[in-house]
Design a protein that fits this description.
The chain has a single domain, classed as HUPs (Rossmann fold). The protein is built from seven helices and six strands, in the order E-H-E-H-E-H-H-E-H-E-H-E-H.
């Protein structure tokens, strides 16, 4: 089975490659994004739900420097962007993966112009319209509710707690 294509949006020819990648996608194009540091069921269900909204799913993955700016913790991300992108690209619901270096995927969204943008329920519509979707009136926003107790941060807390019970 072939993995989805991966594009690093920070490369010099990224715009041309992004448009070429989009031209191979079935419409409507859905774009979802995230850090995806420690992949868990919440990520999988989020991406599967996003995929069901359109003809193809393009997923933005925060670069390492972008992920560090999101205050997920001083040692995050644990996995580098290339590894995280490869894991997301291996999911059968994903058609392509784009690594982006900005704080938000706004520049990718601006160039890509997907029909639908999907984010998790930890974001508000107001916030996303004022950051990621500024100037993108024709992109529909869908917010997918979070799966309770499924986040990389929660998983890390569980691991640390279990480890400390044994050795701290």
């Amino acid at each position: 089975m072939k993995n989805a294509n991966i594009l690093d949006f920070s490369q010099s020819d990224s715009l041309k490659n992004l448009l070429n990648l989009k031209s191979t996608c079935a419409v409507p194009v859905v774009f979802a994004s995230g850090v995806f540091d420690l992949i868990h069921l919440g990520h999988l269900e989020y991406l599967q739900a996003a995929r069901q909204l359109g003809g193809s799913l393009m997923v933005g993955v925060n670069s390492d420097s972008s992920a560090r700016k999101l205050a997920k913790g001083p040692s995050r991300p644990f996995n580098n962007a290339e590894d995280r992108a490869m894991l997301i690209a291996s999911l059968k619901c994903v058609d392509s993966v784009i690594i982006f270096d900005e704080d938000t995927p706004h520049q990718v969204l601006k160039e890509l112009q997907p029909e639908i943008f999907v984010k998790g329920g930890d974001y508000s519509e107001e916030y996303l319209r004022n950051t990621d979707l500024v100037g993108l009136e024709h992109t529909t926003l869908k917010i997918i509710p979070l799966k309770t107790y499924y986040s990389s941060s929660y998983l890390i807390e569980k691991i640390v707690s279990a480890y400390c019970k044994k050795s701290c």
